[in-house]
C-alpha cells in the first residue's frame, strides 16, 4: 500500500518499470500483441518467471517449437537486461530481429546468468522466438556482485545487503 492508503499495482518483472497489467501480462493474456522482438523477449522472460508453459510454447515459432518444455522448480529468475536489439529485413518480407540479453537467476542457492543472443521472426505481424545462441556459459563466477548498499538486482527495491547478499555468499 502507498502512504495514502491506495493499493499499488505490482510492477512487471521484465524490468521495464511499468505496471504488470499494462506491460507483459497484456501480451501473455492476448489483450495485445508484442510490437517488437524486444517486447516478445520481455514477455517470454515474464512467462518463464511466472511458469507460464502455454505462452512460452505459443510464442515459439512452429519451425523450432518443442512439444513441451520443462521448468526447473529450483530456479528463480531475478532480473532481465537487454543488451542489444538488431533488425534485419530480407527480400521475402519476413522480418528477423536479434535480441542479446542477460537474465540473472538463482538455482539451489547459487547465483548464475544466462547470456544469449536470441533470434525472432515476425510472421504476418506476429513476433515469434525462433532460437538462441549462448554467448558464454552462465555461472556464478560471471556475475558482477553489487555493493552492499546498491539496490538488489532481484528487483525487490531493497538494498543488496538486506536482500540477496546472504544467499549469493553461499
TrEMBL record:
Family matches, as Gene3D superfamilies: 3.10.450.50
Transmembrane stretches, start-end: none
Domain annotation YchJ-like middle NTF2-like: ranges: 37-132
InterPro entries: NTF2-like_dom_sf (IPR032710), SEC_C_motif (IPR004027), YchJ-like_M (IPR048469)
Pfam family, one: SEC-C
PANTHER family, per the entry: ADENYLATE CYCLASE-ASSOCIATED CAP C-TERMINAL DOMAIN-CONTAINING PROTEIN, UPF0225 PROTEIN SCO1677
Name of the protein this chain belongs to: UPF0225 protein YchJ
Protein source organism: hydrothermal vent metagenome
Amino acid at each position: 500500500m502507498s502512504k495514502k492508503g491506495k493499493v499499488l499495482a505490482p510492477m512487471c518483472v521484465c524490468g521495464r518499470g511499468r505496471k504488470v497489467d499494462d506491460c507483459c501480462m497484456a501480451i501473455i493474456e492476448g489483450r495485445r500483441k508484442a510490437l517488437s522482438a524486444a517486447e516478445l523477449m520481455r514477455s517470454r522472460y515474464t512467462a518463464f518467471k511466472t511458469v507460464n508453459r502455454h505462452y512460452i510454447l505459443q510464442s515459439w515459432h512452429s519451425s523450432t517449437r518443442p512439444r513441451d518444455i520443462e521448468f526447473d522448480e529450483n530456479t528463480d529468475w531475478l532480473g532481465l537486461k537487454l543488451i542489444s536489439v538488431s533488425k534485419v529485413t530480407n527480400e521475402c518480407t519476413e522480418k528477423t530481429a536479434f535480441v542479446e540479453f542477460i537474465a540473472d537467476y538463482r538455482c539451489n542457492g547459487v547465483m548464475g546468468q544466462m547470456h544469449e543472443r536470441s533470434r525472432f521472426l515476425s510472421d504476418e505481424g506476429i513476433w515469434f522466438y525462433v532460437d538462441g545462441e549462448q554467448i558464454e556459459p552462465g555461472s556464478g563466477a560471471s556475475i558482477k556482485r553489487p555493493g552492499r548498499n546498491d539496490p538488489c538486482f532481484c528487483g525487490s527495491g531493497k538494498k543488496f545487503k538486506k536482500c540477496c547478499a546472504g544467499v549469493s555468499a553461499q
